[in-house]
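HUMAN: Ready with one sample?

ASSISTANT:
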Amino acid sequence: MLAVILSGGSGTRLWPVSREATPKPFMRIGEGPSLLQRTIARAVACGASKALIVTNREYGFRTLEEIESMRTGTPAKAHVLLEPMGRNTAPAIAAAALWARQAGHGDQPMLVLPADHLVQDEARFAALAKEAGRLAASGKIVLFGVRPTMPETGFGYIECEGIPAGENAVAARRFVEKPNAVTAAEYLASGRYMWNSGMFCFTPATILDALSQFAPAVLDAATRAMPVLNSATNRTELDKAAFALAPDISIDYAVMEKAPGVLVLAGDFGWSDIGSWKAVAEEHDADSYGNTISGEVILADCRNTHVQSDDRLIAGVGLRDVVIVDTPDALLVCDRHATQKVKDVVGELRRRGHDAHRLHRTVERPWGTYTTLQEGPRFKIKRIEVKPGAALSLQMHHHRSEHWIVVSGTAKVTINDRETLLAPNESTYVPVGAHHRLENPGKVLLTMIEVQCGDYVGEDDIVRFEDKYGRTANNSVGQ
């Protein structure tokens, strides 16, 4: 079986932990693996001998690091398919199927899993996946349905020709969007509806044929965007201009609602799409008062409250049905029953042009990390850490100068045509408009303090000229 893992989306309802530059698949529930790592391990348990992770090119290096850091549960071969921009699940699945056909997996069952879901009963899901693979090998399109346990308004539903008691396949009648509370209660009472998990199984040949019939524009754009595969590398990048022409449409709208004979496998395997902080809280063990915590937290006289802290003590007193999520640069406090509305906060941050919708205080890059220590009018102070052998791009800024001070390690600094080696407690100055690059030629981590001064110190004031990681001035923001 080939596993295709869709690892995109910004997870706006899980802000401030999930952000545009560090989306939901990289989140960890408690101290465990990331959601992406859990999904990869789940795919292996289902019998996947190869995994294809479809993600945005901005997340490519972080995705590879997540795979490499897994000690167990990693398929023998993992490949990353990089989208230049998100165009929803139909183009992503089309590109994955085309990649699979080129790679010689055209008739192999393709298990499609979102990277940001949780499954509690992994063994039961693996058994269901094997049945889905058997059906897919016979040319069927199979969707994993979940028997509803409550009138949930945050999920899409599938109307079926009855829901069997066992884990058997039934025909899908129609797909419906997230209902209101009254309609959701009616769906639950009818016994004909299942939650749409967004997980599928089919062969590449089957889904490509369906796309050619029902969504030819999607297939055409994906075909034009797909390069000839290079077997020597573990990453493939789709063409930006061609992929941009793909319709922004889900696989449900593009194919599932139109194709005849779609089957739904009913399963009870403890599924959650982790679509809100309420859902996250439900994944933690609660105390006798219904409270759940993560990090250093003290609660007194609290009920049904979830508190999560990254790096400092949080104390709560007399709280009822509250969610508190603390990160180094943002604090969320909301009613436990209003967590779906967190996305409205992210929308307002975007409207204001506030970086907190997109970036954490510490930002991961292919070369290392930078942490914003302080920012004010006309200045910003950062801590920069560069991995051994890594280098920032050769770049230039229109509006700011930079002062670099080495704290530990050795820095190789290029400013225009001049190269300099800096040791700890040494510094240099990068004028506005100068072409410059920072490298770590040593074998230990390079740590520096950067002080930016200028009339604009936003992360988008950057022009790249050369970059060993394939980034350009137009496809990545910040160092």
